[in-house]
Amino acid sequence: MNKFQGTGVALVTPFNADGSVDYNGLKNLINHLIDGGIDYLVSLGTTGETATMTKDEKKKVWAYTAEINNNRLPLVAGIGGNDTLAVANEIKSFDATGYSAILSVSPYYNKPTQEGIYQHYKYLAEVSPLDLILYNVPGRTMSNMSPETTCRLAHDFKNIIATKEASGSFDQFNQIMRDKPADFLLISGDDPITLPMIALGASGIISVVGNALPKQFSDMVRLCLKGDFKNATPAHLSLVEFTRLAFAEGNPAGIKAALKLLGVCGDTVRLPLIKASKGLEEAIAKEIDKLSQFA
């Protein structure tokens, strides 16, 4: 489980101006993150704009990401959806070479009951060749996975090893920490509350902001995991404004604007998403400049 301690980053998918996948940009991004000291990579989660990618594109991105990573860091693939059988088939056909786990979002749109969510993950756990990380993000799915369901899955399936929790509910986090198996990981799914979640016992974060600021963010997380909150707190507070700006016009428009400004990759997104506004881009540029003075 130690491989998923610390800072994971949910990779953006760089696109060329014509909307095609920018593999050179993806290579730059992966090396930028590894050089920045993050702990593991997550390919094709929400931040990767997976909803607008074809099956063939996803297979190529997963394979290319594994090739460029070259086993330097643990690698997680995002494979989820709201059709259990379709997700199971995608998992069974997935080329797991170079990957350590699968991050699978709780079913969206259908609004299943808690028993339905349990049965969905039970089905996936029984077919997956890799360990599974649950992903609860009710702001997107319109369906919350309860602490009881999370811990029931954690106790019943040894290959369900963690949950990425983006509910924003500390009552929920408290219950999971109290009732989970000792080796089951609670991972923050929200950049702004990483510090208090680690203080509660979370193992780290799967971050969006870390795409642009891998060193600053992973350094802060390491301080938290060492219990050095005296130094972690000012580091955390220094990132508050950048984090606010990164999400001000949705994800990943803001973080792609930052990556363009940093010279890592372009800022093209696929419709229905649109690029960050000029005003937001200028504000992000000022904040990057401010942060660089204290790096």
Output the helix-strand order: EHEHEHEHEHHEHEHEHHHHH
Give the CATH architecture: Alpha-Beta Barrel
State the major sheet.
8 strands, parallel, barrel
The CATH topology label is: TIM Barrel
- SS strand fraction: 5-15%
What gross morphology would you assign? Answer: globular
Q: How many strand segments?
A: 8
How many helices? 13
Corresponding CATH superfamily: Aldolase class I
Give the helix proportion (percent range).
40-55%
Give the overall average pLDDT.
Answer: 97
Q: Are there runs of 5+ residues with pLDDT below 50, and where?
A: none
Tally of individual domains:
1
Please list the strands of the largest sheet in the order they lie side by side.
Answer: 1-2-3-4-5-6-7-8
Q: Using the CA coordinates, give the radius of gyration.
A: 18 Å
CATH class: Alpha Beta
**Helix/strand structural class:** alpha/beta
Give an account of the 3D structure.
With 295 residues, the protein is of the alpha/beta class. The protein has one domain: TIM Barrel (Alpha-Beta Barrel). Helices cover 46% and strands 13% of the residues. The chain is built from 13 helices and eight strands. It has helices spanning 23-35, 55-69, 84-93, 114-127, 138-141, 147-156, 170-179, 194-200, 214-225, 229-238, 240-247, 253-261, 278-292; strands at residues 6-10, 40-43, 75-78, 101-105, 131-136, 160-165, 185-188, 204-207. An eight-stranded parallel barrel has the order 1-2-3-4-5-6-7-8, surrounded by seven helices. Helix 3 (84-93) packs parallel to helix 4 (114-127) and helix 11 packs antiparallel against helix 13 (278-292). The protein is globular. The model has no long low-confidence stretch (mean pLDDT 97).
